[in-house]
Design goal:
Elements (H helix, E strand, L loop, with lengths): L19 E6 L4 H17 L3 E6 L5 H12 L4 E9 L5 H18 L4 E8 L2 H8 L6 H18 L11 H16 L5
Parallel strand pairs: 1-2, 1-3, 3-4
Length: about 190
């Protein structure tokens, strides 16, 4: 059983600049979602970060909400939370696969996303994984997003257009100014 397994957990990263996460949760199973959110909030606050929380109808809407937020807001990273419990139809497979695939594709495009959408066989498995004092998969998803944010900040490279640095804007403006007023070679 997974509850008895020993896992290595990375120490949380530290940040020089504040971190702001968007926690997107599908509260279809409200008690489970509440535990996931509690874990995500606690881990975010542990590193001095802030968070906003939005609810969406189901796990399939979580990636869409993250995509909209990425286009229209200023979050450093995202925490995807929800729970999908296997039922009697193949809808379970569609929801699990499509929500996970969408989150992964956005991650490959550079978004810092921690995926805490539980995909389980039954409610008991969900409860064990969701409890903030237990496996704390919501906290784990927040930690994953925070680690990715730390990496993106570490590897930010203005010459590739990755990362936002006011120094890069200033340097670009200085370069343009010197090109327009500087000496010209004949």
């Amino acid at each position: 059983m997974a509850a008895n397994e020993q896992h290595h957990i990375l120490d949380l990263p530290t940040f020089d600049k504040p971190v702001k996460l968007l926690i997107v949760v599908a509260p279809y199973y409200k008690d489970i979602a509440d535990e996931l959110v509690a874990g995500a909030k606690a881990v975010t606050e542990e590193v001095g970060g802030t968070w906003d929380l939005v609810e969406v109808p189901g796990a399939l809407e979580v990636p869409t909400a993250i995509s909209i937020a990425d286009k229209m807001s200023n979050f450093d990273g995202y925490v995807a939370l929800g729970c999908v419990i296997r039922g009697e139809t193949t809808h379970y497979d569609t929801v699990c696969n499509d929500s996970s695939r969408a989150l992964q594709l956005m991650g490959l495009q550079g978004l810092c996303i921690g995926n805490g959408i539980l995909t389980v066989e039954n409610r008991d498995q969900a409860v064990v994984r969701a409890e903030a004092k237990g496996q704390n998969k919501g906290g784990g998803a927040a930690a994953a997003a925070l680690h990715l944010i730390a990496l993106s900040r570490k590897w930010a490279n203005p010459s590739k257009g990755v990362g936002f640095h006011s120094d890069a804007i200033r340097l670009a403006q200085d370069t343009q100014a010197s090109e327009s007023t500087g000496p010209k070679n004949a």
